[in-house]
Request: fold
Amino acid sequence: MAGITVVRFNTRGTTSEAGTSTGTYDNGRAEKYDVEAMIRYCFDTLKNAQLWVVGWSFGTSIAISHARDPRVKGLILLSPTLLDIVDGDLEFWAQDGRPITALIPEHDDYLKPDQAKVRFTVVPQVNLIAVDGAKHLWVGEPYVHRVLSEITQIVAPERLPLPTEI
Reply:
């Protein structure tokens, strides 16, 4: 809808309609190699010089922990859980200073907006966006449109507003 290139991948051992990805789930540690490979692919093959890393749920922990390549413009976190990060991960981003936007569903299963304010206190540049009525999975409207619009606002604001009909 916004002409944004999206590269999506499953983490190690994840099953979807497309099958099961290779490798073994490693609580976010070995997944760093997947993130590093994705970043190289985006820069070297796709020649994308404006790379933002978007993570959803467990993917937010992967992004926080491993998307540290200095060419990455910043992070967009959807339903961050902060369950799989380790000491120093948030502090890295605080010192680094690159922008982080986190969309926090009002009815999230893992991290609600008031909890997110406390947990992200260490990162002064984080933009926390509490989304009233939303749940962890962002299912249905208006939540899907809201997430896509927030991402577009960061990555390609000139392409807003997004269409609401085909």
